[in-house]
Fold:
Amino acid sequence: MAWTRDEMAQRAARELKDGFYVNLGIGMPTLVANHAGDLDITLQSENGMLGMGPFPWEGEEDADLINAGKQTVTELPRTAYFSSADSFAMIRGGHMDLSILGAMEVAENGDLANWMVPGKMVKGMGGAMDLVAGTPRIVVMMEHSDKAGNPKFIPACTLPLTGRNVVDVIITDIAVFERADRKGAPFRLVETAPGVSAEDVKARTTAAFVV
Amino acid sequence: MANKVYSDAASALDGLLFDGMTIVSGGFGLCGIPENSIAAIRAAGTKNLTVVSNNAGVDGFGLGLLLETRQVKKMISSYVGENKEFERQYLSGELELEFAPQGTLAERMRAGGAGIPGFYTRTGVGTLVAEGKEHKVFDGETYIMERGIVGDLAIVKAWKADRFGNLVFRKTARNFNPMAATAGKVTVAEVEEIVADGALDPDLIHTPSVFVQRVFVGTFEKRIEQRTVRKREAA
Structure:
């Protein structure tokens, strides 16, 4: 049985460590914040905020206080605001501990594609290319298959890349893959959803991985 | 000292606009955008603009207003996904678009404003963004060269100013504004309030006055793009 989005977020939260500075991508990765438990995590929002709080109470929204998804948020006692240049100095300079992002495709060599479908979707990369270029550990959360049923963890990306050799962990709705390093270690299947076997995962994946 | 304070956007922009110019704008999404100057540029009808801004506004607001009137020839942005008219003009070839990763765009403004014509970054190596750019290896790692940006005009939005042009921003409305303020040959700042001399703490000024040539008090709609809230428990 496949994991729900919330269960995937719960699993992704196990990648967090106490004291981490973390950037969560737009969409499913934002759910991870709900599962941090007792860990002391500082969330970064690349539009210029460290220490991002929850959504405001109704009626307390502030147009000057939004996250990278343009959603209204709140500040915390630890919050700091800064410019976009400072924000990406944190990111590009390798000062963040972890980023959790969505993906359209991940290749077996760790390449990531998540910003463009030529001729169809032309929205832009936002901060994703900077995040994958600068953050030492990148966790991807995505459905195992796309809407047409095609695998998304594949031998080589077909879409324009966000970064080469940048993904460390892949969490899908049926499996978790991890690799030991970015120097040629293969992705290893480390977990499966309840009732899903390694054989099931193999049958639904075209990328090479070890079990 | 020359007067920097103007009564409104139209007078602050008077004599600065010309067809084919490059305008650098602050703002992220609709947060901290110079909405008064954008409206005045629309009213002035200046054409063939190259606009450097992280986003392109939405249909009917922000930079979307200049797209509607076809005043923009080219955008340099990191994310334009909120604007249908943008997508239509781009896919039909009416609008040029240069995608720059968000951090690269911020640094291009910062570098341009700091007198640095180019810099090397790892962001975008091995992607479409790297095509045609100089590659260089430092300590075994490949980087690409990106160019600093200097615009003919920068338009920014701040919270408070003094009459000298010192600026203070508020919360995440700061975003690209401090870099944009440095990256214009002339910089026009619109603010919510111009305070008395000495009312801004010199230790807490975000943009020092030397970067700002003209300042005015604007009126702000401050539209919220995604209103997300927690519901209060019913009493």
